[in-house]
Amino acid sequence: MTQSGLRVVGRDHPIADAALKVTGGLVYGIDMDLPRMLHARLLLSPVAHAHIVGIDASKALALPGVIAVFSHLNAPAAPYSRYRILPGQALCPEDETLFTATARFVGDRVAAVVATDAQTAADAVALVDVDYEELPELLTPEAALREGASPIHPAGNLLHEFDQTVGEPIARRADAVTVTITVATPRLHHAAIEPHLCLADYDESGKLTIWSPTQSVFGARTVVADLFGLSYNRVRVIKVPMGGSFGGKQEFILEPVTAFMAMATKRPVKLVLDRAQCIAGTMVRPATVSRVSLGVSRDGRLEDVDVDTVLDAGAYATSSPDYAGMMAHKLTRLYRVPHYHHHGRVAYTTTPVGGGCRGYGAPEFVTALEIAFDQVARELGIDPIDLRLQNLVQPHDIDALSGMSLGDARVRECLERGAEAFGWRERLRTPRGDERRRIGVGMACGAHKNGILSTDFPDFSTMAMKMNEDGSVALSASLHEVGCGTRTAMALIVAEELEMSPDLVSITEADSDTTPYDFGCFGSRVTYVCGAAARGTAAALKARLVELAALVMQRPAHELRAHDGRVEAVVGPAEYLPYGAVVMAAKTRLSEDAFVHYTHRATSNPGAYSVQFAEVSVDCATGLTTVTDFLAVGDVGQAINRLMVEGQFVGAVQMGIGSALCEEVRLDDRGRPPAGGFKTYHIVNAPDMPKVRVLLVEHEGDEGPYGAKSVGEIAVVPTAAAVVNAINQALGTSLADLPVTPEKIVAALAQGQGD
Amino acid sequence: MRLSFEVNGVRRELDVDPAARLIDVLRDELGLTGTKEGCGEGECGACTVLIDDRAVDSCLVIAAQVRDKRVLTVEGLARDGELDVLQQQFIDHGAVQCGFCTPGMLMSAKALLLAHPQPSERQIRVALAGNLCRCTGYGAIIAAVTAAGRALAAGGEAWGPESAAEPAADGEASRALNEAGVPPVFGGLLSADTPAAGDDSR
Phi, psi at residue A426, to the nearest 5°? Predict the structure, then answer.
């Protein structure tokens, strides 16, 4: 329910560039051509671990149209971190190079061919002879951390380790129960339908320009400029339309190597990956294994939580140390607990590189936690929702870990309203299905965040806005539209604040040369932090219009207000000027401009919440699971664009069901993914997708614009756990090794698991 | 090879490599970059176009296969500056997010509506089985196609097939489509290991 008094916020709005997208008119990076442009193709390692002892590019170079072949033999060897957005940023080990001299996974960058056309580049890659001296593969953290395992990087295979403790152990009664379960979440492909790509040009003035569907132009600039020793003003990164990311384009995978090839050839270069390269050679959601022990009193109060997580970073560190740490930041946002200990280890392995993915550790941790919660409920013989209600946080609780308020945290309301709408208690009481096809229901709660503010790191966003002579406005902001309608949401916020039509508001995307600083589009910070900045900037412009109108009308500002597209007198003689007339008069009579800039500094980071309910049908003979009904409830504070908020939930459920049932970048015993892209990596398609109902819990009270909180990441956090819990409820199993494939279900039933 | 075919209602004569993929001819020779490549192996459907009113993956079709045929791409959906009812419903229902799957999604939906102006939800889901979307979860897309069908039934402006869709090819995938009442495709739009075709081995 939208707050009263809102005019455009909270309603359904198609995204602003939808007409371009349905006509094929939007120019994505893959559609861009630059004059004299060359095409690059990467040669990725076919072996998981090897010294590269020789590279013979002579046959490739002999092919007409080939301009250059690059490898570690003729490229800078300086190491860098693809994840680092700030100079000197902590937890960003610099362990990657443009082209590697040691292949560390199947998909590692060995060489690249630059040619006059894409086909020639592809043909030439096949002619590059590489001599590999193979080393032992270390395909799991267990193998990599074993005593005596050969080091994948000089500092050893234990990349990061932490111990985190909150509270003190309490005396527990003899009848208290402890349930321990080990939950594995798979290595996932983000599966944006747009493949990874980048364009770069290095001109005669020494300016490097990069066009990339990135989530952070300033981060890309930092990494590239530091790598090549360029001052930051000499590297311009322009965000181009993005065909989906889900975190897969958060880190700077292709920008450094594309920039290098443009600098080396003095020609614009376009690098596009194919789907198999995207799966193996960019980054994956890291595989995790968490052993979760929940100590619970006989009446269902959570008393003690102990977690041991191992995260498989793959071949390079990227964001994995941060990512693992974030997994340990979710429990205290969701549940009250007197004592919580979390031990985490992050291991290098010779497997595809782990990196940021939608939810950033929350789906992985919550999957483990919520599967464990259902095992506790079963052990105690109580309804899973009653167990949660005993322990969920209350609004304005202090997060015991961060020391910050959880804000108006409405997770209980999500659960209660969701259980009612889903008919949870009736469905749980009424067994359905038959001997072969079992029907079960499952639910899970999830928590996430709103931005990157912590007690030791800030969050803020700077924007600028001008009003044109006709009263339309332009917001200059470093936004990174990932496809979910970010710019439309900002236009709605600006239009609401300025009391004008969103059609009269234009919104930029990020360009490191021309738009104000912003960290980037990640961390569930865009609506909450950037949205608040957009609102604050619009409010500043509104105040500026009153100030200018007062000068034009020659009367005190306190007699005026900006309202409904004009500045009007509220006391004294009645008169008004339309916004555009104020701007024209200011320019022509006062030499003044309707231009403002504003920095919003976040002072809070409340919890984002979702509670989700799934019904599944499991065929005990084949092990095939069908999700037959799904309800996603979200505490979003206030929907800015209802249509797209709901779309975020339905889309997230698609990802979450996939991670529960079928998605996994599997590797064979030599570390090789199967051939083919989407032929062997299945994401849920239209016939397999259930109808998803979305229920939004809305309220004022948090710092986001009009009370809005984040949506895109929290929406996927509890999905997989809800599905797996439904399977376990249907079968009486304790399946916890995701994805829960038909093979695993059949095997569990054959072993006598289940009831 | 000299290739003559019709694209979006216009007769084209081109010199092309006979082995060139249709998607490359459309994008690189004709500048029709609305057709997207998401996988290059006929699995994602982003490159779907219509050939004589049937949906195909243009990454799996070689240029010689379209000789003297009618090809329709996303750029040809709107007529005289008016969006096709499907395009409008996609916009209105929030069926467009990042937009990369959208052209292919629209073309598969167009083929469905040409053959079955009033499709059932099941028919819609099966017709879109070979078009992957990572943003929307398909719900808004299915709603948009449903609404487009209703708009057509209510007498909305739409343009129809110039020839009736012909039956049939062999194979599991085609049968799965036929049972749902959707015209068969060629070019591997729905391959045998697509989950919708009844595969449970994922």
Answer: -65, -45
User: Residue B178 pLDDT more than 60?
Assistant: no
pLDDT at B163 over 50: no
- Distance, first Cα to last Cα, chain B: 42
CA–CA distance, A221 with A227 (Å, rounded to integer): 10
Cβ of A14 and B94 within 8 Å? Answer: yes
Residues of chain A with pLDDT under 70: 1-2
Among A24, A30, A195, select the one facing B73 at the smallest CB separation: A24
Please report the pLDDT score of residue A1 as a whole number: 54
CB of A695 closer than 8 Å to CB of A417: yes
Best CA proximity match to A655, nearest among A609, A610, A740, A715? A715
Helix (H) or strand (E) holding B200: none
Residue B199 has pLDDT above 60, yes or no: no
Burial (0-12, 13-18, 19+ Cβ within 10 Å), B69: middle
Region for residue A230 given its phi and psi (left: phi exceeds 0; alpha: psi -120 to 50; beta: otherwise): beta
B44/A685 Cβ within 8 A: no
Closest to A688 (Cβ–Cβ): which among B131, B141, B195?
A: B195
Helix axes of A362-380 and A384-391: crossing angle, nearest 10 degrees: 110
Of B3, B13, B111, which Cα lies nearest the Cα of B65?
B3
Report if pTM > 0.90.
yes
What pLDDT score does B157 carry?
A: 53
User: Mind giving me the DSSP string for A105-125?
Assistant: STT-EEEEEEESSHHHHHHHH
Rounded to 5°, the CA angle A385-A386-A392 comes to 80
Query: Is A273 in contact with A197 (CB distance < 8 Å)?
Result: yes
| Whether residue B170 has pLDDT greater than 80 | no
Give chain A's length: 755
Q: Which of A141, A448, A90, A164 shows the shortest CA–CA distance to A289?
A: A141
CA angle at A192 for the pair A186 and A193, rounded to the nearest 5°: 130
* Domains of chain B listed by start with CATH number: 2-76 (3.10.20.30)
**CB contacts < 8 Å between A and B, how many?**
208
Of B41, B98, B128, the CB nearest to A483: B98
Q: How far is A114 from chain B (nearest CA, A)?
A: 19
pLDDT at B160: 52
- The secondary structure of residue A503, as a DSSP letter, is G
- CA nearest to A644 within chain B: B94
Residue A154, C-beta contacts closer than 8 angstroms, at least 6 positions apart: none
The strand ranges marked E within A140-227 are 158-167, 177-185, 197-202, 208-212
Nearest residue on chain B to A486, alpha-carbon basis: B97
**Most B-contacting residue of A123, A678, A716 (CB-CB within 10 A), to test interface:** A678
Nearest chain A residue to B77 by CA distance is: A23
**From A643, A661, A687, residue closest to B126, measured CB to CB:** A687
Please give the helix or strand (H or E) that residue A321 lies within, else none: helix A320-327
Rg (CA), chain A: 27
ipTM of the complex: 0.97
For residue A182, give the 3-state DSSP assignment: strand
Q: Are A584 and A470 in contact (CB under 8 A)?
A: no
Alpha carbon of residue A683 to chain centroid: 17
Does the beta carbon of B103 lie under 8 angstroms from any beta carbon of chain A?
Answer: yes
Share of chain A above pLDDT 90, in %: 98
Distance from CA of B4 to the nearest CA of A (A): 23
Looking at the complex, report in whole angstroms how far the Cα of residue A18 sits from the nearest Cα belonging to chain B. Answer: 6
| Domains, chain A | 18-23+454-601 (3.30.365.10), 32-135+193-244+249-281 (3.90.1170.50), 288-450+604-750 (3.30.365.10)
Q: What is the pLDDT of residue B117?
A: 94
